[in-house]
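Continuing the series of single-chain predictions for the mutant panel. This is the parent chain; the variants come on the following pages.
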Amino acid sequence: MFEKSLQDLVKGIRAHKRDPAAFVSTAIAECKKELKNVDPFVKAQAVRKLTYLQMLGYDVSWASFAIVETMSQPRFAHKRIGYLAACQCFCETTDVVLLTTNLLKKEFQSTSQYEVGLAVNCLANIVTRDLGRDLLQDCTLLMAHSKPYVRKKATSAMFKLFVRYPQGLRLTFDKLKARLDDAEPAVASCAVNVVCELANKNPNNYLSMAPQFFRLLTTSSNNWMLIKVVKLMGALVPREPRLARKLLEPLATIVQNTAAKSLQYECIHTLTLALPYTKKADGSDSRNAPGVVRLCADHLRQFVDDPDQNLKYLGLVGFVELMKSHPRAVVEHRELVLLCLSDDDVTIRTRALELLTGMVTRKTLEDLVLKLLAHVRQADGAYRDELVSRIILVCSRDKYAYLSDFVWYLNVLVQLARLRGAQKHGALLASQLVDITMRVRPVRAFAARDALRLLLDDKLEVGQGLAAVGDVLAAAAWIAGEFASHLLEEEDESDDESDDEEDALPAFPSEQPRVTLVDVLTRPGTTRLPARVQAVYLQNTLKVITVLSSEDSDELSPALQLLSERLDVFLRSGHVEVQERATALKSLLTTLGAWSNAQQCRNSSAALRATVSERMVPVNPKAQARVPKPQGLDLSKPFSETTLTAFLEQPDPATKPCSFGEADETFDAGFDDDDAFAETGGFYDIKGSDDESSEGEKKKKKKKKSDD
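Parent structure:
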């Protein structure tokens, strides 16, 4: 009479927000006393409170048997409390689950449909492998119950039984399939849901049911069931391509007639999946395919135009799928997609960017890239990185198939390299700069001049991110050094100037550009760059000196003077690679007598040219695979059979076995010199211990016993 109710428990917990542990402990102790009470009302009230505590994270597994007792009460109100607690608290490791088998069997025979539905719902939540095996037949019989309410519950619960007891699917699938033709739409909808969930794992098993689903597609008016059927048909189309043509007309009818956006989108999505399979043997589209494509494109445009962000996103996703089979139908909506790049939602901008990369043609490439560049300057974070990678992708796709002006593309790469925050793609930008310069000869002069201007840009070496910028600077140094002879060629720079004077590249040095190049490659600030970049700088300094030595130019003397004054910094570098490059450069020039003598350097120009005379050409990554193997060459055969045999027969170096104690004494005493240590082989074969014999002694004992 004076027991606390669930409302009192909730109020008490809220009143002890700062430290509810003490109050909860007291409440649990009270519940334990109430569970021992013979009054079913008191026991049910205690189970209600424990269920609430379990939802808050407290362990109530100790009350499992009391929950089963409450489930078996004759009163429906008490029974409902027990079943709810079982659904909430029981799991696979709960021992008393097995005690519910007979209880559930009994409930399945009840004359009250609500008691049966309560038991079926509980079974779906607590089912284990053993429980599923024992109650599979009972649940299957309930699918043919006279009450639609029970049939609906039993049909839905079959999926959980199949998950826990997979063998039951083969035994009862025919009964499940019969529910698709149930006169009650709710029961048929439940059967469709179960089959769709099963088909997600292996659609091939359900191809034979395509006629039944097609009939439901054309006769049902339940939108939620139609969504499931449409999804399932979309999964079956790749397995049975002939189904694609049959789906076009009914799906198009639904798209035109339904007002439900969810169903409309699922139909459009399935149509985009089916359209690639509707082509005839000669590659032409089927008779009604163009009309369906136009219908999908128009409705997807309405999705994108909708102010609802969710519908806009779905419209862009639908356009991406439609582009895979009919890109021309999507290109017509390019301006609409471009507007989505200015949307506040980054997911919409990313989808629009993905869509735009598939709309590129030779005519629209430059215009599209310029618009994307404008967005790059305003974007930040991951979206900026995605923009940069997409720009490079559309320009380099299919070996630059859409690119007609390589000078323009080089200018784009230079702009991207100088953008703050875009240096994350430094390696990609560097590879593109080098690849274009090597492949396209007419742009080498322009590339060399822009590479020098990049090296002169002090902004690239300011702040963090030098490791990422280093890739671009290394590529610029290589281009300027490799094609230093092109630096004197006149180029039209009218298209290269930026509208913003502050953002423009440094001016190209009109006088002695090669001396300026040596200056920028060897200036002391270079030591802040990564070691690999410094090594590239020194290597290309030698190339510039080589070019100047082969010309009658007044730039050689000042270049050698700069090099002799600044090389000492690199000779004392803390990086081995930089030291080696600097030492090799000085030794080479000193050996040839060209270290500080311009005339002697010109006399040695032939020797200098030999170091860099090999022409650099682009190599296909698959070039080695195309080299024909000479006749008679067996790659698995050793070069010398006798050498291999002698090597294999050579015994392993003998090692001196010793115990741990001997090893400690030896190492404590030390060795007189390195030769003494070398005589031991540099290591010990430490096996055994002080009171154990060595491995060699064990072998001798075994051999002696066998001889005896």
